[in-house]
Amino acid sequence: MRSIAIGGSEYVVEGELGRGGMGIVLKARDLNLDRHVAIKLMLDASGTIDAELFRREGRMLAKLPPDRGIVPVHAADEVWWEGKRQLCLVMGFIEGRSLAHYARDPNFPTVSALATWCAQTCEALAIAHAQGVIHRDVKPSNIIISDNHAWLIDFGISSPQADSSSASGFPIGTPPYMSPEQASLIPLTGLSDLYSVGVMFFELLTGELPFQHQVQNDGWASYLMTVRTEYPPSLAGGPANLGAVMDSLLRRVKSGHLPFPDAVSAARGLRDIASICRAAEAGKIAPLPPIKIIDDLGYARTPARGMVEVGADFSYSPERLDGDTPEWARGSDDTRMDWQRKYRFRNRRLGNG
Fold this sequence. Notes:
Layout: E1 2-6, E2 9-19, E3 23-30, E4 35-42, H1 49-63, E5 73-81, E6 84-92, E7 97-98, H2 99-103, H3 111-130, E8 133-134, E9 143-146, E10 149-152, E11 159-160, H4 180-183, H5 190-206, H6 212-229, E12 234-236, H7 242-250, H8 263-281, E13 292-294, E14 300-301, H9 318-321, H10 333-342
Helix pairs in contact: 3-5, 3-8, 5-7, 7-8
């Protein structure tokens, strides 16, 4: 193990948490305060746009008050690493897995847990929005679940609300989760992040993105045009308020459901869903009807994930998993048997009970 000094404190590096094309994240122990931290290093970025984004992340996090749900930043400095001076952020260490991991796990969580984690994400966003910070990249891989609580990470492309458009002339963010205004290069408000939460919740429930066809078949340019000009699909089934909450997050105003005015309101709606689902999962109320995707013409279909009749027992439909299901849901025969044993999905069509 090697030690490094940052901002007057000494840290013993215990290992790598992750590495990408532009940087690495280290797990280290703060010898002064006897606690674990995460040290984020931006490799070879001095003087580049990436370096400015990295510094911006530190400034954005420093503006936010301490709260469960947003990882604190302890220090920002330069450190000698791999033979060069590198930019670094010392941040709180959150031990857990990303929501993207749970989305692809056959042992995926209950609907009540998914709704709760999305509500907690909105509560973290409410804190950021109150300080004028727009995250701009809310997606499952940027949510860490630790002790059954969601933590919002990676403010690397966040921006002040007054400066939330892209100077590059191209949308900044992750296309499948971008709001219409983010794809249109117009100034953003906190409502843009709530749209991203809606996309994330839709994907977690169904195994599909709202505009799945454009993402898979037509590429990002087509997707960016579609999200600007078309309404996303809605959901039916599940708790009675699921469709209304999803429509408010994804702004299907033609459905008669107004967008949530802020992240606090969105969190409240998601917690209502979690409460109803929790009661169904515990057998305190009757099982809820299976969740269906409703397209723009009003047609209903079973989602790719094979989900969800909350609180009920399921039979298994292997032919459903061989259809348009994402790659993560296919797997081997052993994987399918494991799914059958644990969840016993039933592929139901609307009106077939």
